Structure of Zinc ribbon domain-containing protein:
Amino acid sequence: MPTYDYFCSDCNEAIEIFQSMSDPDVEKCPTCSSTEIRKLISVGSGVIFKGSGFYATDNRTKTSQD
């Protein structure tokens, strides 16, 4: 599920909210219940590869020709 950033102008709080892409935008600040909340444009996250060898060692067997 994506993380969306919101900012409330009444309490100056930046909030991260996990919600589905099909969910409607948040209309009330969860901190102060104000309706002065807006969705921020964020960069998002990139793909993170964890583990060893994402090409050289994946599913590759050593032979005498290598």
